[in-house]
Amino acid sequence: MDMDMDMSKQQQQQEAGAASNNNKQRAVAAAAHVLAVAAVVLVVVWCVHFRGGVALRSVQNKQLIFNLHPVLMVLGPIVLGGEAILSYRSLLLVPRAARKKAHMALHAAGLAAGVLGVYAVFKFHVESGIPNLYSLHSWVGIAAISLYAAQWAAGFLAFFFPGASPPARRRALLPWHAVAGVLVFALAVATAQLGFLEKLTFLQGPPLRLPKYGAEAMLVNFTALVVLLLGVAVVLATLNGTTRSSSYSAIV
């Protein structure tokens, strides 16, 4: 009798701990959503208000072409990619088949935005007579978008494509897919940090000599900080054991 009572108390404690853990992870996921909106707003304000706007084609002001790059790279692999990672946590009332589609669609949109952002910066360099792929930011960025594309293609073929891998193989691949997704997302966030630092360094040098403590410099630094916190929030919400197990079952 005493043993049964002890087991019941232990089970209740485990259930209470799991519920508390779930609540904490939902709070972290909610914080990630807020940070995602803030990141997009800040990068748009920077590129439109301080840098003059965005354009895919511009004859007189080539910087407008470049300005598309930070907007699309934050919006794509980081914000949409982060939302795709969190989709299983945020859409708990949605059927798992719909969550699976949302996950793939958000990642596809993030990849499309990222590819267009890479195209914009190459276009800007070519039309401005600037060499391509000379910085650490560009090297890591090409690696990040390439891995993002490979990760999406592998996930589509393994878990979504009609007649995909048998269940046993999907279960074996799923932990690797999840870990790879988080690593690629972290690489995208790191690439953005390098990009903010590189661009601000250029702006603070000749000929512009942007004030180091001016409004634009503070905005760029704060935007980079928000993007970093967004990355941390997404990773923390994803690494939770309960979240991970529920996501695995939803995908498979």
How would you characterize the overall build of this protein?
This protein has 252 residues and is mainly alpha-helical. The chain is built from seven helices and no strands. Helix 5 runs antiparallel to helix 6. The longest helix is centred in the first third of the chain and has 49 residues. The two termini are 41 Å apart.
With helices defined by DSSP (H or I, 4 residues minimum), what is the helix count? 7
Percent of residues in beta strands? Answer: under 5%
User: What gyration radius follows from the Cα positions, in whole Å?
Assistant: 21 Å
Distance between the termini: 41 Å
Give the assembly state of these chains. Answer: single chain
Using the alpha-carbon principal axes, give the shape: globular
The helix/strand series, from N terminus to C terminus, equals HHHHHHH
Reported for the largest beta sheet, the result is: none
The average pLDDT score comes to: 88
Give the proportion of residues in helices.
over 70%
Please identify the structural class as seen in this structure. mainly alpha
**Count of distinct strands:** 0
Membrane topology: Multi-pass membrane protein
Pfam family, one: Cytochrom_B561
Keywords: Electron transport, Heme, Iron, Membrane, Metal-binding, Oxidoreductase, Transmembrane, Transmembrane helix, Transport
Cofactor: heme b
